[in-house]
Amino acid sequence: MILPRKLPPSKIFHFRAGDSLELVGERLSADGHLQSRPPVLLAHGFGQTRQSWNQTQYRLALAGHDSLSWDMRGHGDSARNPAGVRYQAEQFREDVIAAARQLPGAPILVGASMGGLTGLMAQAQQPLFSALVLVDVTPRWEAAGVQRIQAFMTAHPHGFDSFEHAAEAISSYLPHRRERKTPEQLASLLRNDPDSGQLCWHWDPRMLSEFVAGSEHLQEAISDAAASIDIPMLLISGGRSDLVSAQTVAHFLELAPRARHVQLPKATHMLAGDDNDAFIDTLLQFLSAQFPANPSVAR
């Protein structure tokens, strides 16, 4: 049995987006006994927070990679758009650029769903990254998957009266997962509404109507972005995903013929949470092949 290695604690810090909105990030340094490989920027999907990358950041640190995760605007501890300022794809793209500038050199982007799409858009706008890893997302996506996600996100507009109520809703949405989330695990996903006393999602509900509902028109622009990128890319998809299909994968690989594709058969769109060990092993194998470390050189 390999015992977990103790690493220095992660550091929480605040930085500004291009429009001065405050974003909150969390950085974990690589194991000091290893030569550092390129740093990794971790972009979560819609409705998630930086905490979804906790185990990934730990494994990256053991492999010699500094990493930075952050709460996207409208999510978690990061600020929300002011009243009257609509959520738009360009804002999330600029936030990826701002986050990338918090790391030295040309980091690697690992983006889940929305995080991967905005990463493609950012790289197409200006060279930022040395490699891209897309987690169950392609420039085109299946409408049925988006509709299922939207149905879940809008199912409880008034929130939940307890953590148990929220855990039941998540279990119904993800019936293949055996373990129900604990109140501690749900703490980063829910906020107490002081007016109603209910537990509400941590993300700004305006994003559903202002950004997600109108995202279909972005598919051609994202396809053009993917075709213009000439750095190593890896797509990790879930075999049970209803957002990514054999057709959308084939379209992506036609746009980016140098990209690699690995499918995790048992995973759904919530890939990292469904099969976290397999996901991280696949990620580390790709990074090790692209950026081999020199074991004879210590940091």
Characterization of the model:
The chain has 299 residues and is of the alpha/beta class. 35% of the residues lie in helices and 18% in strands. The chain has helices spanning 54-62, 89-100, 114-125, 143-153, 163-173, 183-186, 206-212, 219-228, 246-255, 271-274, 276-290; strands at residues 11-16, 22-28, 37-43, 65-71, 108-112, 131-135, 190-192, 199-201, 233-238, 260-264. The strands form two sheets. The protein has an eight-stranded mixed sheet, with helices on both faces. It has a two-stranded antiparallel ribbon with strand order 7-8. Strand 9 (233-238), helix 9 (246-255) and strand 10 (260-264) form a beta-alpha-beta unit. Helix 2 crosses helix 3 and helix 3 crosses helix 8. The longest helix has 15 residues, at 276-290. The chain is globular.
Short description:
With 299 residues, the protein is α/β, with parallel strands linked by helices. It has helices at residues 54-62, 89-100, 114-125, 143-153, 163-173, 183-186, 206-212, 219-228, 246-255, 271-274, 276-290; strands spanning 11-16, 22-28, 37-43, 65-71, 108-112, 131-135, 190-192, 199-201, 233-238, 260-264.
Helix content: 25-40%
Report the span from N to C terminus: 27 Å
Low-confidence stretches: 295-299
What string, H for helix and E for strand, traces the elements in order?
Answer: EEEHEHEHEHHHEEHHEHEHH
Could you give the order of strands across the largest sheet? 1-2-4-3-5-6-9-10
